[in-house]
Specification:
It is built from two helices and three strands, in the order βαβαβ. By secondary structure, the protein is of the alpha/beta class. The N and C termini lie far apart (about 40 Å). The model has no long low-confidence stretch (mean pLDDT about 90).
Length: about 80
Amino acid sequence: MKTARVSAPALRPDWLQREIAVIGLARSGRAVATLLARTGNSVYASDGTRSPGLEDTAKQLEREGVATDLGAHDIDRV
Protein backbone atom coordinates (compact mmCIF):
# COMPACT_ATOMS: atom_id res chain seq x y z
CA MET A 1 0.00 0.00 0.00
CA LYS A 2 1.39 3.38 -1.01
CA THR A 3 1.14 6.20 1.52
CA ALA A 4 0.34 9.68 0.27
CA ARG A 5 2.96 12.37 0.79
CA VAL A 6 1.99 14.62 3.71
CA SER A 7 4.36 17.48 2.91
CA ALA A 8 6.30 18.99 0.05
CA PRO A 9 9.87 17.71 -0.55
CA ALA A 10 12.42 19.42 1.70
CA LEU A 11 14.71 20.30 -1.22
CA ARG A 12 13.66 21.43 -4.65
CA PRO A 13 14.72 18.84 -7.26
CA ASP A 14 16.77 21.41 -9.23
CA TRP A 15 18.87 22.11 -6.11
CA LEU A 16 20.02 18.51 -6.11
CA GLN A 17 21.64 18.98 -9.52
CA ARG A 18 24.29 21.29 -8.03
CA GLU A 19 26.73 21.15 -5.16
CA ILE A 20 25.00 21.64 -1.81
CA ALA A 21 26.81 23.68 0.85
CA VAL A 22 26.57 22.82 4.54
CA ILE A 23 27.82 25.52 6.92
CA GLY A 24 28.93 24.29 10.34
CA LEU A 25 30.31 20.85 11.12
CA ALA A 26 28.95 20.26 14.60
CA ARG A 27 26.49 17.40 15.14
CA SER A 28 23.66 18.57 12.88
CA GLY A 29 25.97 19.83 10.11
CA ARG A 30 27.89 16.56 10.13
CA ALA A 31 24.63 14.59 10.03
CA VAL A 32 23.10 16.50 7.13
CA ALA A 33 26.34 16.46 5.11
CA THR A 34 26.58 12.69 5.59
CA LEU A 35 22.93 12.15 4.64
CA LEU A 36 23.24 14.29 1.51
CA ALA A 37 26.43 12.54 0.42
CA ARG A 38 25.03 9.07 1.03
CA THR A 39 22.01 9.90 -1.13
CA GLY A 40 24.27 10.74 -4.05
CA ASN A 41 24.57 14.51 -3.80
CA SER A 42 27.69 16.61 -4.31
CA VAL A 43 28.37 18.25 -0.93
CA TYR A 44 30.71 21.01 0.29
CA ALA A 45 30.86 21.40 4.09
CA SER A 46 32.79 24.01 6.02
CA ASP A 47 33.24 25.44 9.49
CA GLY A 48 34.69 28.82 10.40
CA THR A 49 36.69 27.32 13.26
CA ARG A 50 39.27 24.59 13.56
CA SER A 51 39.66 22.09 16.41
CA PRO A 52 40.81 18.50 16.80
CA GLY A 53 37.19 17.34 16.94
CA LEU A 54 36.29 19.21 13.75
CA GLU A 55 39.38 17.84 12.04
CA ASP A 56 38.18 14.31 12.86
CA THR A 57 34.73 15.19 11.53
CA ALA A 58 36.23 16.59 8.32
CA LYS A 59 38.22 13.38 7.78
CA GLN A 60 35.09 11.27 8.26
CA LEU A 61 33.14 13.43 5.81
CA GLU A 62 35.93 13.28 3.24
CA ARG A 63 35.71 9.47 3.38
CA GLU A 64 32.02 9.92 2.47
CA GLY A 65 33.02 12.03 -0.54
CA VAL A 66 32.28 15.43 1.00
CA ALA A 67 34.60 18.35 0.17
CA THR A 68 35.51 20.14 3.42
CA ASP A 69 37.15 23.33 4.68
CA LEU A 70 38.01 24.25 8.26
CA GLY A 71 38.86 27.71 9.53
CA ALA A 72 37.12 29.47 6.62
CA HIS A 73 34.26 29.21 4.16
CA ASP A 74 34.81 29.22 0.39
CA ILE A 75 32.32 31.95 -0.45
CA ASP A 76 32.24 30.96 -4.14
CA ARG A 77 30.89 27.53 -3.13
CA VAL A 78 28.31 28.78 -0.64
